[in-house]
Amino acid sequence: MASKSNKWNVVKSVSKIANQDIISKIKNYNSPKSESLIYCYNTLDKVSRSFAVVIKQLSPELRDAVCVFYLSLRALDTIEDDLSTNFEQRMQWLNEFYLHVGNENFKLENVGDTPDYVELLSNYPKVAKAFNELNDKYKTIIKDIAKEMGLGMAHFAKNEVKTIDDYNMYCHYVAGLVGIGLSKLFAASGIESKELLEKLNIANSMGLFLQKTNITRDYAEDVEQGRFFWPQEIWKKFGNSNSAFLHKSDLNALGCLNTMVNDALKHFIDCIDYLNSLKETSIFRFCAIPQVMALGTLKLVYNNAMVFSENIKMEKSESAIMFANCNSIEEFNLLVKNIIDNWKTEASMPLYFETNQILNNISKKLVLNN
Ligand code: CA
Fold it and tell me: What is the distance in A from the centroid of ligand 1 to the CA of 354?
């Protein structure tokens, strides 16, 4: 058997070819059929460059449904995040947004905390028009998810995330439902099998893993903006308030951080199962690339006190390697193995024993997959 580094280099060169395939697919990407879809794809580039790339390499029919799904949920998230709007008004918008997903007269002015989000909501009629042009089977799925998500966001606008159960529930509403909705879109397109619908719990874990990684990484930024997502059940063990760790680097702060990382990392086993059940390459890439990037981010964040003072991000070169080398479950397993093999844990790090156990479980799972 080739040594680890040789195997790694082989995969890199093989995937260069596969990566050219994605790039040429995006280059040859036929411009969308309607004015409203052109607006949607242009907006997608502005509100999420990383998702825009993986969405555009999907097959045409599914790509349009996923693009509209993403933008309508982004609109909902923009309402949730703009804390400057009147509370009662915001609750009404969150609860009723699903009724307007296909309403070509629905728009909100001056809602959103960045210019691109404000523009999305003031041009919402174009997204609604693109929604109305979709096949009915996709419309029902998108509307149902928008309803559940809006109700969940309204609930958590009134209720703090206290227990770990609350935290799981909040992440289910804002991200797990995205994983569930996408699985339903994949199955409805006929590209992935209907069996995916029997695995909605692991589809939920896909969303939880991404969301918890972001919540853990974004501590400093969120606290500075008055947002608290780390559950009280966790931070109370290490500090007197949810903002107590800002600019700290002591063992309590790191203990709290590592507990958050471990809690997120536990979902990764489900993510491996989910990715194993996918059949089509562009859907696989769409799902796997964000997961492997999140795992890389968690490794970077682990036991790293910089989280308490700034927004840390993976090196661009590192994420480019992940993007280019994630075209099959075998390549994904190699990327994951590489991250885990380089994940440093030492006895001096709080919670390192639990982290090691979870990392070992992930490694065992990878071996079973090969
Ligand atoms: Ca949000």
Answer: 30
pLDDT averaged over every residue in the chain: 91
Predicted confidence at residue 51, as pLDDT, reads 86
pTM score above 0.85: yes
Going from the Cα of 278 to the center of ligand 1, the distance in angstroms, rounded, reads 28
How far is the centre of ligand 1, averaged over its atoms, from the C-alpha of 77 (Å)?
Answer: 5
Residues sharing a CB contact under 8 Å with residue 28, sequence separation 6 or more, in sequence order: none
Query: What tokens appear for 306 in the block?
Result: 């910089």
Active site residues: 170, 217, 227, 286
pLDDT > 60? residue 134:
yes
Structure tokens at 197: 């619908």
For residues 214 and 266, is the Cβ–Cβ distance under 8 A? no
CB 185 within 8 A of CB 138: yes
CA of 76 to the centre of ligand 1 (A): 8
Q: Per residue in 328-360, pLDDT tens?
A: 999 999 999 999 999 999 999 999 999 999 999
pLDDT of residue 5: 38
Say if CB 141 and CB 181 are below 8 A apart: yes
- Alpha helices (H) in the chain, listed in sequence order: 4-27, 35-47, 49-56, 60-81, 87-96, 115-122, 124-132, 136-158, 164-171, 177-189, 200-217, 219-224, 232-235, 251-265, 268-276, 281-301, 316-324, 329-341, 352-369
CA of 156 to the centre of ligand 1 (A): 11
What pLDDT is attached to residue 60? 87
Whether the CB-CB separation of 309 and 263 falls below 8 Å is answered with: no
Calpha distance 175→294 (Å, rounded): 14
Neighbours of 158 (CB within 10 A): 8
